[in-house]
Amino acid sequence: MAFEAISGKINDRLAELSQRERIMLAIGGVAVIIMICFMSSFILSKKVEMAKTRTVAKSKQLSELMALQSTYAKRELSGRQLQNKLKANKTRLISHLETAAKNAGVEIGNMTPHDSNPDSDGIVETSVTIKLQRLSITRLQEFLMRVESGTQGLVFIKSLNVTKRFDDKTLLDVELAISTYKIS
Questions:
Q1: pTM of the model
Q2: Does 79 share its domain with 23?
Q3: Are 183 and 83 within 8 A, CB to CB?
Q4: Is residue 13 packed enough to be buried (19+ CB in 10 Å), middle (13-18) or exposed (0-12)?
């Protein structure tokens, strides 16, 4: 009933308006409807644009996550392979160094072994400090190559201190720290 009363009042008011006022009212109504449609489409296009931006960002994050997952899997495999190599490491560092020196024609002057306690992963470092005197550069190179070869990459030269001799500038005095690792 209330709707019929309001509708009747609106019809009475429209009947009182002149033809010119009715045209202006119709144009105004059409303009309001067009404005409402324009604003609605603008708001919807902004929301669609925001959704596309979020989708692109999420896709980028997903691809980064997949790349990280792949990198993690490769590193985990590499870590397991290294761990297996360390478990299988039977290198006796002093005998390996003596053999490398003999094959390179180098005489070891002083050899001091050092053992460490296992770390949290059970890895034990065995190292030896070696002093070599009166070496030519080619003998030193040959010795270093023999030290690091044939051990599956498990013997490392940690430090190398080379000094020229004052009595013969073509010869060198060398101090090396060489290490190997294994899992106890």
A1: 0.58
A2: yes
A3: yes
A4: exposed
3-state secondary structure 32-63: HHHHHHHHHHHHHHHHHHHHHHHHHHHHHHHH
Query: What tokens were used for 130?
Result: 């070696």
Do both 99 and 80 map to the same domain? no
pLDDT for 103-139, tens place per residue?
Answer: 888 888 888 888 788 787 788 888 899 998 888 889 9
In angstroms, rounded to a whole number, what is the distance separating the alpha carbons of residues 176 and 111? 10
Q: Please report, as a single letter, which amino acid is at residue 70.
A: S
Long-range contacts formed by 72-79: CB under 8 A, 24+ apart: none
113-114-117 Cα angle (round to 5): 150
Cβ burial of 166 (10 Å; 0-12, 13-18, 19+) is exposed
CA distance 173 to 135: 6
Beta-sheet pairing, 123-135 with 155-164:
unpaired
Residues 70 and 114 both lie in one domain? no
- Under 8 Å CB-to-CB from 176, ≥6 apart: which residues? 129, 130, 132, 157, 159, 160, 161
